Structure formats: structure tokens, C-alpha cells
């Protein structure tokens, strides 16, 4: 059995058939996981200023660029092993650089609150064994974490839920559209208007405290009753909700306080985003948007989006991420003005404009290590295939030594 790094579920029940140094077949993986196991469509090659080079020279050139930078940022990390992430944090310290990851524009604040123990949470195994009420809020797990419902929440028979979804569990979807997850939730889909989560939470809190809610009162009272009666429930919070309520998590905390049997779990897409958040939190008490300068400072201006918009960084080292394809247009124009060092197994839009590209092994397939599952459990990754490419951890070690 090996672990799939296709998403934050880190399924560890995957069987692979290897033939002629390639993964020929996977069993138990979902379609996304099987594609991840097959690797990149286009493998990245070492290059300096868009010209072919070798990895040794690329590392030397990257070290030169970083040495001369006045305000570098190190970004990415959600698709790297815990070991590589630690090296990255050490490198950021050494360079007095800013460091950030993809969680700064999705689930970072929520994860930080979970790590600060401001929300009650649990493991995926607890959910599989005990949960009777499952609420997918702003999260289409069927698409983003495809085996969530089948391995851990709605469909499996759990220790105390032997009759599974037919009788023992209720799945609820709260979303702006009828997603694939909402279709499974059938009679328990609550459609809300775009950015309507805040009003929905207030109405639900009214219903929970016995008041007549202003908002679709019949359905709201029904939802409040299901959630109140839950013996062991979970709200899976997706980025739909996070984006909608912006940074106002106090209201969510008030709702959670009214539901003592319900756990809160952030839905984490990239396979090791939580690993990075936990590692940085341990070192600095913050999960992202940190700048080292003798001490660690935290500010929204150290998020990649703000730093690019404000043109406050002059060099960007990117590990396992493709900001050019995922960030808003207002942020990406500055990418054309600064040297970019890209460490990745695959060609990406960002690697095409990078000053230095350094190909690395495909983690979870060509190198092992560890990662943190979306619920905080540490999972070991297996090396399945042999490669000549160094791991991102090794590249970062060599880069740090070259400085
Ligand atoms: S659900 Fe995620 S971790 Fe599991 S097999 Fe699919 S992609 Fe891989």
C-alpha cells in the first residue's frame, strides 16, 4: 500500500502496479489520484535565463540571485513534504525573507484558529466511526477531495454507525449551487445566495436559540433541529464559506459554541498545506504571511497577493506552485519584473517565465517523506519509482549551503 498525494486526504490504501520503471496501474485511487500517480504531462528541465543548463549550475545561479536580493519571498510549499517545508523555513530565516503559502488566500486563518484550539475538531477516523450529522458548507468534497464521503464520512460503516448512510447518518450541503456533493445530500441541500453565508449563520443561530429566523424559517428550523440533536457531528468548511465571510471567524466561533456536539474541520485541498501551516505555526505562532528579520513578523502585506500588488518583493523563489495560473491579474503583473526561481517536477505557466528552473522529484512517487493530512494526522509517503531528479528537500539543502 502507498499513499496518494493527490489531495489533503492522503489516502494510504493505494495499490500500484509498476512496470518498466513506470506506474502502470493504480487500485483504490480516485481519478484525480490515479492522474497524480502517473506524474507530469511535461517534465521540467534545468534552465538559466530560459537556456538549458544543469542542476548544479541552476543551484549556483539561484544562490547568486537570492544573495543579491533585498526583499525576497519564498512561496509555495503546499505540495512539498514536511522535510522540504522545514528546509524552506530555515532558508527564509537565513535570508531574512518573507515566506507564504497558498493558505494565505484560502483556509489559512481557519487552520490557524484550529491550531490555536479555538474550534473543537476531531480526526477523520472519529468521523468515520461516530459521526451521525455531516455538514458540507461551501465545500464540494466530491470534486475537491473525491474520496471524503466514501472513506470517512457518509458512506462507510463506522464502529458506532453500522447502518451507514441508509439509516445512521445525515449529510447536509449548504452552498450557493447544487454541487455534486449537494446532489448526494438530496433532501438536505440548503441553497444560499452568493456571499449569503453571514446572514445564513445569523438565521441559524436564531433558530438554535428558539427565535423565529428571518431567513427561510421552515428549513432553518429543520436544520437547527438536526444539528441540535447530533450525537457527534462535523461541519466541513470549504473555501466557499471562507471567501464569503472573509476574515470574520468570530461569528463562526459563536455558532460552534452553540453546537457542543459538532466539530469543525477545514477542507484542505493541496496534499500538505496543513503540514506547512503547522510547521510555520510551531516556529512563529503564525501559519503564513511571515517575514523574518531577526524575529518573525506577521502581516497581510507579507501575503503573496499583497506583496506582488505592492511590488514590495524583488525576488521570488517558488516551490511546487504555479502562482501565474492561480493569482488575480492585479497581482501577477509584477511577476514579469522580478527574477523567479522555480523548483517543481513539472512545467507550469510560472516556470515558463522563470529566470532559473530546477526540476525536482515528484514527491510521494519519486521520493518519500512525511505529510500532514487535512485533519492533522502525520502520514508517511513512500518512494515508488527511482529517479535521477533530487528531491525538493535536497535542492533546498544544497541551495542553503551555496549561499
Ligand atoms: S481522494 Fe485524494 S488522496 Fe484519495 S485517492 Fe483521490 S486524490 Fe488521492
The overall average pLDDT, rounded, is 94
Domains, number: 2
CATH class of the largest domain: Alpha Beta
Please report which band the strand proportion falls in: under 5%, 5-15%, 15-25%, 25-35%, 35-45% or over 45%.
15-25%
Query: Spatial order of the strands in the main sheet?
Result: 4-3-16-15-14-5-6-12-13
Low-confidence stretches: none
CATH topology of the largest domain: Rossmann fold
Unique ligands: iron/sulfur cluster
Helix content: 25-40%
**What shape does the CA trace take?**
globular
Task: Please work out how many helical segments DSSP would assign.
Answer: 19
Number of strands: 18
Radius of gyration (Å): 22 Å
CATH architectural grouping of the largest domain: 3-Layer(aba) Sandwich
> What structural class do helix, strand and pairing data support?
alpha/beta
Summarize the main sheet: 9 strands, mixed
Cα end-to-end separation: 39 Å
Summary, kept brief:
It contains 19 helices and 18 strands. The protein is of the alpha/beta class and 403 residues long.
Topology summary:
Layout: E1 15-19, E2 22-27, H1 31-38, E3 47-48, E4 51-52, H2 55-68, E5 72-76, H3 82-95, E6 98-101, H4 108-115, H5 124-130, E7 133-137, H6 141-144, H7 148-152, H8 164-167, E8 170-175, H9 180-185, E9 189-191, H10 197-208, H11 217-229, E10 233-237, H12 239-245, H13 250-257, E11 262-266, H14 273-284, E12 290-293, E13 295-298, H15 304-309, E14 315-319, H16 323-326, H17 329-332, E15 340-344, H18 349-352, E16 356-359, E17 369-372, E18 378-381, H19 392-402
Parallel strand pairs: 5-6, 5-14, 7-8, 7-10, 8-9, 10-11, 14-15, 15-16
Antiparallel strand pairs: 1-2, 3-4, 3-16, 6-12, 12-13, 17-18
Amino acid at each position: 500500500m502507498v499513499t496518494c498525494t493527490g489531495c489533503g486526504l492522503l489516502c494510504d490504501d493505494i495499490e500500484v502496479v509498476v512496470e518498466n520503471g513506470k506506474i502502470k496501474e493504480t487500485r483504490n485511487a480516485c481519478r484525480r489520484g490515479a492522474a497524480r500517480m502517473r506524474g507530469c504531462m511535461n517534465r521540467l528541465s534545468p534552465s538559466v535565463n530560459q537556456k538549458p543548463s544543469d542542476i548544479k549550475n541552476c543551484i549556483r545561479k539561484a544562490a547568486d540571485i537570492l544573495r543579491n536580493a533585498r526583499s525576497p519571498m519564498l512561496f509555495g510549499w503546499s505540495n512539498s513534504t514536511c522535510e522540504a517545508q522545514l528546509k524552506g523555513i530555515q532558508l527564509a530565516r537565513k535570508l531574512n525573507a518573507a515566506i507564504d503559502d497558498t493558505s494565505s488566500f484560502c483556509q489559512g486563518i481557519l487552520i490557524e484558529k484550529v491550531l490555536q484550539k479555538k474550534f473543537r475538531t476531531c480526526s477523520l477516523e472519529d468521523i468515520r466511526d461516530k459521526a451521525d450529522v455531516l455538514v458540507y458548507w461551501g465545500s464540494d468534497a466530491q470534486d475537491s477531495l473525491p474520496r471524503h464521503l466514501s472513506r470517512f464520512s457518509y458512506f462507510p460503516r463506522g464502529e458506532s454507525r453500522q447502518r451507514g448512510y441508509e439509516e445512521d447518518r445525515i449529510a447536509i450541503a449548504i452552498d450557493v449551487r447544487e454541487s455534486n456533493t449537494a446532489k448526494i445530500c438530496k433532501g438536505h441541500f440548503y441553497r444560499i445566495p452568493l456571499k449569503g453565508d453571514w446572514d445564513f449563520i445569523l438565521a441559524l443561530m436564531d433558530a438554535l436559540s428558539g427565535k423565529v429566523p428571518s431567513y427561510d424559517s421552515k428549513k432553518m428550523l429543520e436544520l437547527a433541529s438536526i444539528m441540535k440533536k447530533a450525537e457527534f457531528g462535523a461541519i466541513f468548511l470549504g473555501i466557499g464559506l471562507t471567501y464569503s465571510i472573509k476574515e470574520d471567524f468570530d461569528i463562526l466561533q459563536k455558532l460552534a459554541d452553540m453546537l457542543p456536539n459538532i466539530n469543525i474541520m477545514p477542507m484542505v485541498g493541496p496534499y500538505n498545506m496543513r503540514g506547512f501551516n503547522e510547521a510555520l505555526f510551531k516556529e512563529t505562532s503564525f501559519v503564513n504571511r511571515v517575514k523574518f528579520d531577526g524575529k518573525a513578523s506577521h502581516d497581510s502585506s507579507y501575503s503573496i497577493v499583497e506583496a506582488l500588488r505592492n511590488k514590495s518583493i524583488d525576488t521570488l523563489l517558488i516551490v511546487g506552485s504555479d502562482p501565474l495560473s492561480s493569482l488575480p491579474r492585479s497581482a501577477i503583473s509584477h511577476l514579469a519584473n522580478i527574477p523567479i526561481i522555480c523548483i517543481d517536477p513539472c512545467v507550469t505557466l510560472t516556470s515558463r517565465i522563470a529566470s532559473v528552473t530546477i526540476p525536482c522529484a515528484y514527491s510521494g512517487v519519486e521520493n518519500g517523506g512525511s505529510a500532514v493530512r487535512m485533519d492533522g494526522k502525520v502520514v508517511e509517503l513512500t518512494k515508488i519509482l527511482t529517479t535521477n531528479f533530487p528531491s525538493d528537500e535536497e535542492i533546498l539543502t544544497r541551495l542553503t549551503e551555496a549561499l
